[in-house]
Amino acid sequence: MNWRAVARAGSRKRPTSAGEPGAFAALSIPLFRAMWLAEFAGDVGNWMHTVGAQWVIIGHPDAVLFAALLVGAARMPSLALAVPLGAIADLFDRRRLLLWSQAFQVVVGAALAVASLLGRLTPVALLAFTLLLGLGSALSMVAFQALVPQLVPPSRLHSAAALTQVNLNIARVVGPMLGGLLVAVIGPTSVFALDALSYLVFVVVLCFCTVPGRPPGPRPQFRHALVEGVGYVRRSVLMRRILVHSFLTGIPCAAVWALLPSVSTLRLGAGAPGYGLLLAAAGVGSICGAALLPLVRRWASDNASLILGSVVTAAALAVLGAVDSLAGAALALFAFGTAWMVMQTPLAATMQLIAPDWVRGRAMALFQTVRTGSQSLGAVGWGLLATNLGLLAAVEVSAAAMALAALLAVCWPVGPGRRAAGQPDEEHVQRAATVIPRLPG
Predict the structure, then answer these.
(1) Do 24-154+174-211 and 220-413+423-441 have matching folds?
(2) Virtual CA dihedral for 424, 428, 431, 435, nearest 10 degrees?
(3) 258: Cβ–Cβ under 8 A, 6 or more apart, which residues?
(4) CA torsion through residues 426, 427, 433, 435, sign
(5) Fewer CB within 10 Å: C terminus or N terminus of the chain?
């Protein structure tokens, strides 16, 4: 595919003076922009569903237990089935997988809304619906991540990865606010219905846009595909290092999402509006971080970005645990959101860039498993630590853990030094494979 022609057709904007595409350059490609907006609608719907589900179980005697089970049901498919789903994304047509997974979520979401409307939505039924929605979401996420490098040229892959994270952060703010408002005014049924409609947006985009399908090539057996995908990642030193750094940075970052409700309520004395302000500060920070990425990449390597982001994140966590004002906490979370983008985007983009198309679904599935698993384990660990040592101690320990992750990036880099001026990303990654030699086995 002629990427230059696609880029010229999508936008007249020029890259920055140093040859680095702008922060939101991937949005100039119409197909990616349409799918990104559809993904945003689905993410907002997911958060609205979370609010509606919590409202349904709030009066149940075992509400605390069911709330924890709902979180587990939503994330379990991504943790337990990501690699098999990644193999499916490599073996079958990715456009059809996206279409059927989104259509499946439309049907499940509609059934959930009907059950709520009829008053037959028990906590057990809600758990079952949430698990099914999580399964569809997991397949959709893996297929979409594997498809992104087919939608945008390599030079704009960092922009696409950053926009995906911006998408999630904005949805984390908009979804709960909109969902809470609708539940309070109309009821949870409206939230479940809108959640089903949010998946329908993606179905419409896939039906009316020409989306690349499965890459050409032989199709191995499913069992062999699983072994082959894991073996490929295991033999790549660069991929292994990306997974390790994603895990070690994900655990400290999980402290923000796990402890922020307690920090805002118990330490800062802020109610729901204050908690929403803190979430918004992190979301705005992620947008600013995405805008800064071209400048950072112009002057620093991906490994330097990882180190810089880790250090700033550690400082933001330390400040979050020390301040006792809402404004100070908001500034800390703004810095956290900015640093998160600078730190995590190069990892995701490099993983997408170095994985060949025939194995990209499995590689991104492993990456997603590590990222989700680290945040899930971290959330549980920080909750237990806060219970036994106190809230302040847990936040400060997370800051120390992030500082150690930064030190590891110094000793165990994920790539070579800064790119030469105008050096394409493909050449930079090939140089990384040379600087970080592949080990036997």
Answers:
(1) yes
(2) 170
(3) 378, 379, 380, 382, 383
(4) negative
(5) C
CATH architecture of 220-413+423-441: Up-down Bundle (1.20)
Q: Compute the distance between CA of residue 65 and CA of residue 79 in angstroms, rounded to an integer.
A: 20
Give backbone dihedrals phi and psi of 16, rounded to 5 degrees, phi first.
Answer: -65, 170
Provide the 8-state DSSP code for 22. P
Q: Do 263 and 395 touch, CB atoms closer than 8 A?
A: yes
Amino acid at 436: I
pLDDT in tens, 238-265: 899 999 999 999 999 988 877 887 788 7
Rg (CA), the chain: 21
Amino acid at the residue 305: S
Residue spans of alpha helices (H) in 236-356: 237-262, 272-299, 302-322, 326-354
Question: Which of 282, 425, 292, 283 is closest to 23 using CA atoms?
Answer: 292
* Banded model confidence at residue 227, pLDDT cuts 50, 70, 90: confident
Domain ranges of the chain: 24-154+174-211, 220-413+423-441
Residues 24-154+174-211: name the CATH superfamily: MFS general substrate transporter like domains (1.20.1250.20)
